[in-house]
């Protein structure tokens, strides 16, 4: 069946009420019954919940063949816990037919690729897929198609019962003996635990894994002891120095800084840029750099933000310290400066992914966003954006909060260079649709600005401000003039991944790459 972004979704994927993507806000107003976990009552007092090993904790929680286990990735590339746990489940306990429900999968979990190829891990539901795991899934090595959801789509699926977590294994910087846990105050801090605390509430069993045990009660906590079954102390839960990936670092590239400056000009020209506006940036270099240019415009107009949302960098923390941001609502920290800031500033507040972006609740924070600035691997002439598959069709990215913030904000701005190397970023059709074009408003490149024709109000604002803009088709033509039109990828019939829209409908599929033939 052809969906609203023109993608052909196989009929066999549309079972049990699953629908194709029908467009922005299609599910608005529909009732939703939320699922609940099955937990164990503890009326009798217990001295603590400490277990001597991960295996003991897993056995206490009834780990079994075919179960779904989850973990968070606040430590990003520095995470140790997911691989540590999976090795115990597979190599010590001999479990098989495992299902993974992760906030992301990357190089820190490379060992999962081995278990996928061996048929031990048979299913993965995640927001991000990179490195060896992305290559394994793209090659058809995972028994069942991976399901890729946004940061808001994941808690929606958990709360709807589409994902049932048997055991959540959650890394924490500190915990007390009963499981009050958080991402600060330890020897290895990740900052916000916004990826983790939702799992703690909805999993049947929760295991806290920490390298810093502190006296009871460890308050205020991100995860409450009432949701925790076991606590395990290990030598190291992660390397916080690896939280700041190259994508999440502030750029010094002149081209990217020029694009960031033009984004700030677009924002300043629109009517929502006034005292009390709200804002979020994505991870990419130019999108993060927008923060520094916004400061000048805010001071000129004598305004400040009511809140900054989502993943948090030191740049936005610096704006708050200068009195330009009232609140930071933080789901994850992109660097150690942001993690430390969360620990010391009372208006820098941790929120979970459901609060942040869940389209299935009664109003997530993304619905109050004025602006979001996001990056892209590709954007096509229909303003559809791809952030998960490379030009070769291999899974190597993450939707994260991209589709959620684009849909919820008043103005979604994509900032990306026209070309990368010998590949056109602005193209006729993206390889995979991650964020639908009906949610994207403005494109800023190093060769010009384009506005979605669905937003004549923004076009009028830019015209009044004297900001030159062109059609996205002209940018696409310029990109092909510079680097040529790419040859179409060749695919096999096998679907290796399903891309869900934030409302749970099917937005796109990723098929197994066919070896290229001339």
Layout of helices and strands:
Layout: E1 50-51, H1 54-60, E2 68-71, H2 81-92, E3 98-102, H3 111-117, E4 121-126, H4 131-138, E5 146-148, H5 153-159, E6 167-172, E7 174-175, E8 181-182, H6 197-202, E9 205-210, E10 230-233, H7 254-269, E11 277-281, H8 285-301, E12 305-312, H9 314-321, E13 325-333, H10 336-344, E14 348-350, H11 353-357, E15 371-374, E16 378-380, E17 385-386, H12 402-408, E18 411-415, E19 419-420, E20 423-424, E21 426-427, E22 442-445, E23 448-451, H13 456-465, H14 472-483, E24 491-500, E25 506-513
Parallel strand pairs: 1-10, 2-3, 2-6, 3-4, 4-5, 5-24, 6-9, 9-10, 11-12, 11-15, 12-13, 13-14, 15-18, 16-21, 18-22
Antiparallel strand pairs: 7-8, 16-17, 19-20, 22-23, 24-25
Helix pairs in contact: 3-4, 7-8, 9-10
Secondary-structure class: alpha/beta
Q: What overall form do the CA principal axes indicate? A: globular
The total count of strands amounts to: 25
Relative helix content: 25-40%
Spans where pLDDT lies below 50 across 5 or more residues: none
Structural description of this entry:
The chain is an alpha/beta fold and 518 residues long. Helix content is 25%, strand content 21%. The chain is built from 14 helices and 25 strands. The chain has helices at 54-60, 81-92, 111-117, 131-138, 153-159, 197-202, 254-269, 285-301, 314-321, 336-344, 353-357, 402-408, 456-465, 472-483; strands spanning 50-51, 68-71, 98-102, 121-126, 146-148, 167-172, 174-175, 181-182, 205-210, 230-233, 277-281, 305-312, 325-333, 348-350, 371-374, 378-380, 385-386, 411-415, 419-420, 423-424, 426-427, 442-445, 448-451, 491-500, 506-513. Strands 1-10-9-6-2-3-4-5-24-25 form a 10-stranded mixed β-sheet. An 8-stranded mixed β-sheet has the order 14-13-12-11-15-18-22-23, sandwiched between helices. β22 and β23 (448-451) form a beta hairpin. α3 (111-117) packs parallel to α4 (131-138) and α9 (314-321) runs parallel beside α10. The longest helix is centred in the middle third of the chain and has 17 residues, at 285-301. The protein is globular, with a radius of gyration of 22 Å. The two termini are 30 Å apart. The model has no long low-confidence stretch (mean pLDDT 95).
């Amino acid at each position: 069946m052809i969906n609203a972004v023109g993608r052909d979704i196989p009929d066999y994927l549309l079972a049990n009420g699953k629908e194709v993507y029908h467009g922005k806000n299609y599910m608005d107003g529909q009732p939703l019954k939320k699922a609940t976990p099955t937990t164990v009552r503890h009326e009798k007092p217990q001295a603590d919940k400490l277990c001597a090993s991960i295996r003991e904790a897993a056995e206490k929680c009834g780990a079994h063949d075919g179960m779904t286990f989850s973990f968070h990735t606040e430590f990003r590339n520095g995470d140790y816990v997911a691989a540590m746990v999976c090795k115990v489940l597979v190599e010590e306990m001999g479990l098989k037919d495992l299902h993974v429900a992760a906030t992301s999968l990357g190089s820190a979990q490379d060992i999962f690729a081995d278990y996928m190829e061996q048929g031990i891990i048979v299913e993965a539901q995640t927001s991000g897929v990179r490195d060896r795991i992305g290559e394994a899934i793209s090659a058809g090595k995972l028994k069942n198609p991976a399901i890729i959801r946004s940061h808001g789509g994941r808690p929606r699926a958990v709360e709807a019962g589409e994902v049932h977590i048997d055991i959540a294994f959650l890394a924490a910087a500190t915990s007390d003996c009963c499981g009050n846990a958080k991402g600060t105050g330890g020897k290895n801090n990740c900052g916000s635990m916004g990826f983790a605390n939702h799992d703690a509430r909805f999993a049947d069993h929760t295991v806290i894994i920490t390298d810093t045990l502190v006296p009871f009660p460890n308050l205020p906590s991100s995860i409450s002891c009432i949701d925790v079954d076991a606590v395990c102390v290990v030598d190291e839960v992660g390397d916080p120095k690896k939280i700041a990936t190259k994508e999440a670092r502030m750029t010094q590239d002149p081209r990217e800084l020029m694009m960031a400056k033009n984004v700030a000009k677009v924002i300043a020209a629109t009517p929502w840029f006034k005292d009390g506006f709200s804002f979020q940036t994505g991870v990419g270099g130019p999108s993060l750099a927008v923060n520094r240019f916004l400061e000048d415009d805010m001071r000129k107009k004598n305004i400040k933000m009511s809140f900054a949302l989502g993943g948090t960098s030191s740049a936005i923390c610096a704006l708050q310290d200068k009195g330009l941001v009232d609140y930071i609502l933080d789901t994850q920290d992109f660097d150690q400066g942001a993690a430390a800031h969360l620990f010391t500033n009372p208006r820098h507040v941790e929120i979970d992914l459901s609060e942040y972006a869940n389209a299935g609740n009664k109003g997530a924070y993304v619905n109050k966003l004025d602006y979001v600035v996001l990056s892209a691997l590709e954007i096509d002439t229909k303003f559809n954006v791809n952030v998960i598959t490379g030009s070769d069709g291999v899974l190597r990215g993450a939707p994260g909060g991209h589709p959620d913030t684009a849909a919820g904000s008043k103005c979604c701005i994509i900032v990306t260079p026209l070309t990368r190397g010998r590949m056109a970023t602005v193209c006729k059709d993206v390889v995979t649709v991650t964020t639908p074009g009906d949610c994207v408003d403005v494109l800023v490149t190093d060769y010009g600005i384009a506005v979605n024709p669905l937003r004549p109000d923004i076009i009028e604002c830019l015209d009044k401000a004297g900001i030159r803009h062109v059609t996205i088709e002209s940018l696409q033509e310029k990109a092909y003039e510079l680097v040529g039109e790419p040859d179409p990828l060749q695919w096999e019939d096998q679907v290796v991944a399903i891309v869900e829209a934030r409302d749970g409908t099917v937005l796109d599929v990723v098929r197994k790459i066919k070896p290229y033939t001339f």
